[in-house]
Write a structure and sequence with these properties.
Elements lengths: L1 H19 L6 H12 L7 H12 L5 H6 L6 H12 L4 H23 L3 H18 L3 H18 L3 H12 L21 H25 L20 H16 L9 H16 L14 H8 L20 H22 L3 H8 L4 H7 L6 H19 L2
Helix pairs in contact: 1-7, 1-14, 2-6, 6-7, 6-8, 6-13, 7-13, 7-14, 8-9, 10-12, 11-12, 12-13, 15-17
């Protein structure tokens, strides 16, 4: 908990300073995020299956099996495992290199498009990216990176190159195929009324949408039968409030910016739509990793917030107005994080017991083998799952 508290204070000071002083350098912050979250050790839960794949499974596959058979993971990711294992990288360094490279590309994109990049980075980490790195959701993070690289082809109106990039992304996570039609999203004109209508329409048509998605990606049908992915019965009040907050910032802050780009607003709108229907089918929330960078970018413009009558909100004199607004956004984000992590035993176990590979190496506390590293951890994890009846 101490790590996160110190990091939150660091970000708060940076957010305030970034609102006053423009053109602050971002290199140190990006590498700090990479060090803290890409070199994690024994955190999350997906690392167990990924390390097993890296050390025990991928190397036993023949090229014929990789090319012609279903192998339990996307072929691009399996080949990447084999390549780096043969280069002599251990699992932790392999994961740090891949996640670090992806993080550098994604965060630089967010920084380029943001007004207050300290705020957009913090928000991005809170809502999705921190857990994506710590689990790690490495295949989807790689797919997201390709998607971010492909954004320039949306800007340049080059459909062919965009599709090629997305096909590459899908070699690491099949859900990336769903991003192909989104090339045309810049041609759409979203409004608050349209988004609200879409949310209600999605809730009504959700069953049919899921049938289509599972027809395209049948392997994900397993999530229909896992208790932790079953509908929780409806959208919570806090989710609705946050959704309204996101919408207001989008249309009454970001849209008034000189740096406004329609595709960023539209992708951010997709994030809100998915967030508000996720309660009915939680696994859909995984798709929001693709759109989290864009909602984070729009939130960074909260200092430019306007009233509904389009007049800029000026409750305080000078820079104090912007400072109060960004602090408000920081408090909202931090409260959301602590509510999601601290109040849940499973999340507390997987995320709050922070360990860093480099720090553990210096201390001499690294485990001797994958079995020693995973056995006790998985046992504790299973006990919590059974206790929470997940």
């Amino acid at each position: 908990m101490l790590y996160y508290s110190c990091l939150s204070i660091f970000f708060l000071l940076g957010i305030i300073k970034n609102e006053i002083v423009k053109n602050m350098k971002s290199t140190f912050l990006i590498f700090l995020i990479i060090f803290l979250f890409c070199f994690s050790y024994q955190m999350g839960i997906d690392w167990i299956s990924y390390q097993d794949l890296y050390e025990n499974i991928a190397l036993k596959l023949t090229w014929d099996q990789i090319i012609t058979q279903y192998i339990g993971s996307e072929r691009g990711y399996v080949i990447l495992n084999i390549f780096f294992y043969n280069l002599g990288f251990n699992y932790e360094l392999f994961m740090a290199l891949i996640l670090g490279t992806c993080s550098f590309i994604i965060l630089n994109f967010i920084k380029k498009k943001s007004k207050n990049y300290y705020l957009s980075f913090y928000f991005f980490l809170i809502i999705f990216f921190m857990s994506a790195l710590l689990e790690p959701l490495v295949r989807q993070v790689i797919a997201l990176t390709f998607f971010i690289v492909g954004i320039k082809y949306i800007e340049r109106k080059n459909f062919f190159k965009y599709v090629l990039i997305i096909i590459l992304a899908a070699q690491f996570h099949r859900t990336a195929y769903l991003l192909i039609p989104l090339y045309f999203i810049k041609n759409l004109k979203f409004s608050m009324k349209k988004i609200i209508l879409m949310i209600f329409s999605f809730k009504i048509l959700l069953e049919y949408i899921l049938i289509l998605i599972l027809y395209i990606f049948p392997k994900y049908s397993v999530y229909l039968n896992e208790i932790k992915y079953i509908s929780k019965g409806g959208t919570s009040l806090i989710t609705i409030v946050m959704g309204c907050y996101y919408l207001y910032v989008e249309f009454y802050a970001y849209k008034f910016s000189r740096r406004f780009q329609s595709y960023i607003l539209n992708f951010a709108s997709l994030y809100i739509i998915i967030e508000l229907i996720t309660a009915y089918f939680p696994i859909l929330g995984r798709m929001n990793l693709y759109f989290a960078p864009f909602i984070s970018i729009t939130i960074s413009y909260i200092g430019d917030l306007h009233y509904v009558n389009k007049r800029k909100i000026n409750l305080f004199r000078g820079k104090w107005n912007n400072i109060i607004l960004v602090i408000f956004s920081f408090i909202m984000s931090t409260t959301m994080f602590y509510r999601r992590v601290v109040t849940n035993e499973l999340s507390s176990f997987t995320y709050l017991n922070y360990k860093n590979y480099i720090i553990e190496f210096i201390k001499g506390d690294l485990k001797n083998s994958f079995l020693e590293k995973s056995e006790e951890y998985k046992k504790k994890f299973d006990e919590i799952l059974e206790k929470e009846n997940l």
